[in-house]
Every structure is written in C-alpha cells, then in structure tokens.
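Q: Hi! First time asking for a complex rather than a single chain. Here are the components, and I think there are two in total. Is that enough to go on?
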Amino acid sequence: MLLATWNVNSLKARLARVLEFLDTHRPDVLCLQETKASSDSFPHTELKDAGYSAVDHSGGRWAGVAIVAPVEHSLDHIVRGLASEPRPDEARWIEATVSADGNPLRVVSVYVPNGRALDHPAFQDKLKFLDAMVERTTTLVKDPLFLAGDMNIAPADADVYDPAAFRGSTHTSAAERSRLSRLLASGLVDTFRHLEPDSTQYTWWDYRAGNFHKNLGLRIDLGLLTPDLARRCQRCGIDRSFRKGPKPSDHAPLLIQLS
DNA sequence: ATGGCTTGTTTTACAAGA
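A: Yes, that's all I need. Here is the structure of the assembled complex.
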C-alpha cells in the first residue's frame, strides 16, 4: 500500500503535475494541501478520468485540503474540520476512511496555519489549531491512522537548512515544537525520520533566489503513522522530481510504502 | 537576503505563503 502527501500550492495550477504524480506512482492514498479550490471548482471529473476519487474540504481562495484514492477503494465516514479550531472557515482538516480490499484505514489531510511571525495574532491561531489537533488525535490513534500534511513546523534543527537564520521565526519555535512533540507522544511516528534517522532531506524550498537548486529547504511536510503501521513501512522518500520541471509547487511530495 | 517567486482575486495592486 502506497501512501502520499503533497502541498500542491493550488490544485488548479498544479492539476497537470498531480495527474502526472498519480500516473507515475499510482498511490492508494494521496493527501493534498493548499488546494486553493472552492467546492464547486474542485476537479473531480479530471481526477475520475485518471481513475481516482476525492473528498475535499475547500475554503476558496486560501488553504483547502483533500484526500484522493483510487475509484475502486471506498472513501467514507468523512469529517470536515476540527472541533475547537480557531478559524473553521479556512478548511485545513479533513478525515476519511479509505478501504482497500476491506481493510479500513483512517486518513487525515491537514494544513497547519503558517503563523506569519511569533508576535503576530496569526501565531496564536496556529498554536490553538495545534492544540485542537492534539485533542482530536488522542481519539483517532485508537485505530490505525495515517495523519499527513503540511505541519508548518520543522521538527528539529536537522530539518532546517540554516537553524541560526530561523531563530526567532515561526516553524522552529519551542511553542510549535512542543505541540508537535505532544502530537507524536499521543501515539504517532514521524515515518520519514523513523526510517532515515540521520538523513537531511527537505520537502519545501522557497521559490525565490534559486533556493531549490542550492537545497536551502525545510522538512515541514510529515506523514505520521500509528506504531503498528509504522512497523509495516518499508520505504519512505521525498520525490524531488516534482519540485522540478514545469510549474512546480514549492513543496515536494512525500511517499510511504507499507507492506 | 531586506519577500528576490507564485498564486488567486474584491486584478493591473495586493495579500499570503514559510
């Protein structure tokens, strides 16, 4: 079973690359973030033509998340939004149960708020969102869970190209990292780091200043698994080829192969 | 490296991203 997550920075602008991704990897689950779609404009028809169905939580101009799976898998028990999240209209959390050959897997696609700056009101909303996430996840981890998306937190300095440059910035603060630690402590494994304890690899690079070519990036897109599923993980990798070529997202997709 | 690209929109300027 192949699981994936990808912040596409507009599903409309990235549709050709997303179809290319589905054709190349044929994932059983693809979590999308920053779809920047409305419910009406979500490209269900184009995905269906590629053999995939999707459930979306769409907020229009910004954010937006979705879960995509092959049409032959069932996709049900959909939950849109997170109880006690500060701005429910922003469409940052969706849950669904994906069943392949009768084996159910609970899946979450999440797009954590950016936070802008430590002294910005948006940062308090980011922390509240993370608290709401921890609260909900405590219940979800009782069953097999794949919780994936753009956490907008680099878990450790090893996940940051220049830790000194990020001191005093969002994505690396103690307030954010302690909440991510609580999320993991609720019973989830950071799959990439579990399989690659010493590897330095990123999932996001700024569009500007040739940062991708200089490999100046952050690892902020995570695929989290409950321990029984993590034990079944054979491979976990970041497909940098989708950060290259025509009209790339500024994030690369993360792939997780389960036995 | 100081927002240097990229996206969408209440477009021809601005907001947001990380």
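A: Residues 9-10, 12-13, 34, 36, 60-62, 114-116, 152, 165-166, 169-171, 204, 206-211, 218, 220, 247, 249-250 of chain A lie near DNA strand B (CB under 10 Å from a C1'). Let me know if you'd like any chain examined more closely.
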